[in-house]
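Recombination endonuclease VII
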Amino acid sequence: MSHKKCRDCGRLKAAAEFSKRRASPDGLALYCKECFALRGAASYRKRQAREGKAVRPFRRHSAVPPGMKYCPRCEKVQPVDAFGKNRAEASGLTNYCRPCHNKVMAEQRDRKYGGGRNYQLRLRYGLSAEQVDQMIAGQGGICVICLRAEARHVDHNHLTGVVRRILCFRCNGALGQFHEDPRCLGDAADYLELKGPQAQRLEIVLGKPVFEGRPRVLSEADWLKRRKSTRPAQRGRRLIERYGIDEEDRQRLLGLQGGLCAVCWDVPAEHVDHDHATGAVRGMACGGCNTGMGQLDDDPVSLRRAADYLLGQLVTSVPAADGGTRLSFTVPDVDPATVPLDGWAPHREADGRHRSRVWRVDDDHEGPTWLTLGLERLLDSYKAMAEERMASR
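Tokens:
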């Protein structure tokens, strides 16, 4: 049968306009798809009206043109490009257009999690906003590494997923630049204080622990003369203007370092590192070490505190006056709750003097150093956490 008459509308329509029905002799429904939808909608709306509920006007899904999609929130038919991707749906698109989808997701986050911040914290770190606020209050609101900026960013161990503390943006980013390597952070502190192998190498070759370079401002005659003798490219001129060295000097520094970063000695050196106060060039560094030192303001105290932080030797719990416990992250110890945000400078200086003495390594290097012991403790703590996790499964 190629055509059939609908009992409701009375029109003769193609068989494709009817749904299949096994009980019928011809295998087709008694009503066309459009009339059947109207019957179902009328029945549904009658039930909703009895319950006192309001529903939107009836709309056939088949009325949407090809390449278009209906958004039930704004009640508009829009191009499919206005909808996001969703592999869970048969159409591969979200149920709502992009603006409506964002509003619906925000409403769900507010209803289920109490806001977007709480949702993101639970998704990434398994913490609630209240727990993070409690951690910030326990630190006195200050970043435990630099003791200069407010604590706002959750820091966690990327290997185990364990949340450590709340840091400022720059300290949190610096740990990532140094690949969370406490050895590299300690070496960077020695490098900045001109006590590491790079300074010793320059002292032997140049007679000074830094490369002071030449005057940065050259007259046009001097520049043309220098250009004829060394043929520097435009990059060479920028090197002279910024650091007082040319391409030949840069290659000499790179040769002294064997092509590796003067801080970590693991990655090829790419950037000229210099003292921003004096302008003296200390060496060539990789992008991570150069950026990481800059994020910590080229401060050896912050670098050593960051290394101790990663080793688990910076933040400890001590008995509080009220009988409970509180955090301690300075030497000499001070209660974070008693120090205002702008009052950490003297405590930071005293702590820096202490860590400078602790981090000193004897020239003979006999026996395990303090850093080696710290790394061993860190590995032991990771092993204990792994055993606890396996036992809980």
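The chain has 14 helices and 14 strands.
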